[in-house]
Amino acid sequence: MQRLAKIARSLVELFPERHLYVRSGGAMKAFVLTTRKQLIIAGAVAGGALWMGVCTAAMLVNLLSASSADREIAKLKAQSERYVADRQARLDSAMARLNAAGSSGADAAASIEKRHAALALLLTDVKGAPGAAEALTPAINRALAGQDASPVRRVEMVRIGQEQLLEAADSFAKSRADRLRLAFRMAGLSPSSFSDGAGSLGGPLIESKDPRALAAVLDVDDDFAVRIQRAARDLSEAKALAAAANDLPLARPTSNTQQTSGFGVRFDPFTRRPAYHSGLDFSGGYATPIYSTGPGVVAYVGQRSGYGNVVEIDHGRGLKTRYAHLSGFSVQRGQRVAIGQRIASMGSTGRSTGTHLHYEVWVNGRAQNPGRFLKAGQYVLQAAD
Q1: Among 284, 252, 253, 278, which residue's Cα sits nearest to residue 266?
Q2: What is the mean pLDDT of residues 218-231?
Q3: Interior angle at CA 318, CA 312 and CA 320, nearest 5
Q4: 212, pLDDT greater than 90
Q5: Measured between alpha carbons, how far is 47 from 53 in angstroms, rounded to an integer?
C-alpha cells in the first residue's frame, strides 16, 4: 500500500492539476485538467503512439517480406530462363551434329572410296608376288570383320582395315626388298645397280618426289599419299630386284653332286704346290647332266687350254658363267637358254685328274667366288617362300 501510495504521489507530482484559460470573443473560459484527466490523455496518446508503432512495424515487415519474395521470384525466373537457353543450345548443337554427321558420312564414304582406289592401284603390283597372299590375307580378313556392326562402325572398321592393309603391304614389300638386297650383297653385287629409282604405281609412272602431287593425282589426303608413296617405292624396288635376281646365275649347276674344291688358293693336284683356283669343283659320275645356273645366251661352245670342253653363257649385266671339263654339249653358240636347262654332260677333259665339273662365275671380266652366288640363290629361295 505504501508503494501504491508512493506511485500515486509520483503521478500527482508528474501530472499536477492544471488550469487552462481560453479567451474567445471577449469571453474567457476556464478548464481544469485534473491529474486523472491528464493520465487519461497521456494513456490515449501512448496508446495511439503504440498503435502507430505497431502499424509501422507491420508495414515495414510486409515491405521486407515482399522484397525477399520478389528476389526469390526473380531468381527462379533467371534460373528458368537459363534452363530454357541451355536446352535450346543443346538442341541447336544436336541438330548441328546431326547435319554434320550426314555431311561427314558422305565425306567419309567418298574418302574411303578414294583410298580404296589408291589401294587397288598399289595392290595390283603386289598381286602374284611370292608370299604376298600369306602376308596380306590376315589384314584382309581383319578388314572384312565386323560386317554385322552398325553402319557407322562398319565405315570406321573399313577405314581401319585400309590402314592395316596398307601397312601389311608396305611391310611385305620392305621385307622382301631387304632380303633381296641382302642376297645381292651376299653375291658380292651392288643392289643399287640392279634397281631403278623410279617407281610405278598401278601401271602409269608416277613421280613420287612430291607427296602432295601424288595426293592430288590419287585424290587422297597427304598422309595416306605419303604411305602409298613409300609402299609403292618399296614394291617397285622389290620387283626390280626380284626381276634382276631371276636373271642372275644363282642356281646349282648340278644336282646330287658334292663340292670337292673351293674358290681361291689350293694345292694344285698336278704340281702339289699352292695355286689359284678360279672356281668350284663338283664331283660326279660320267655324263652327269650339267644345267644352266641362270637364263642367258650361249657365248662359247668348244675347247679352251686347260679347261677341256667348255660352255660359256652370257647372262647380261657383265655376268658370265663357265662350265669346264665336259664330256659333251647339249647347246650351241648363240642359243638362248633358261635357268635349269641342260647344257652339257660331266667329263674329265683338259687338265683334269677325274670326272668332275669346274664351274666359274665372272663379273665384268673378273672371276668371282661362285659359292657366294650359290648361297645368295638359297637365300632368294627362302625369301620367295
Answers
A1: 278
A2: 72
A3: 20
A4: no
A5: 10
* Nearest of 244, 187, 189, 245 to residue 374 by alpha carbon: 187
The full DSSP string for 266-318 is: EE-TTT-SEEEE-SEEEE--TT-EEE-SS-EEEEEEEEETTTEEEEEEEEETT
Strands 336-337, 296-304: pairing kind:
antiparallel
pTM: 0.57
CB atoms within 10 A of CB 26: 5
Can you list the positions of beta strands (E) in 139-288? 258-261, 264-267, 274-277, 280-283
C-alpha cell at 50: 503504440
User: Got the DSSP string for 319-340?
Assistant: EEEEEEEEEEES--TT-EE-TT
Exposure letters 87-111 (e unless 16+ CB within 10 A, then b): eeeeeeeeeeeeeeeeeeeeebeeb
Whether residue 203 has pLDDT greater than 70: no
pLDDT digits (tens, 9 = 90+) for 245-292: 888 999 999 988 888 888 776 666 656 666 667 889 999 899 999 999
Cα distance from N-terminal residue to C-terminal residue, the chain? 135
373 contacts: CB under 8 Å, gap ≥ 6 = 187, 248, 249, 250, 293, 361
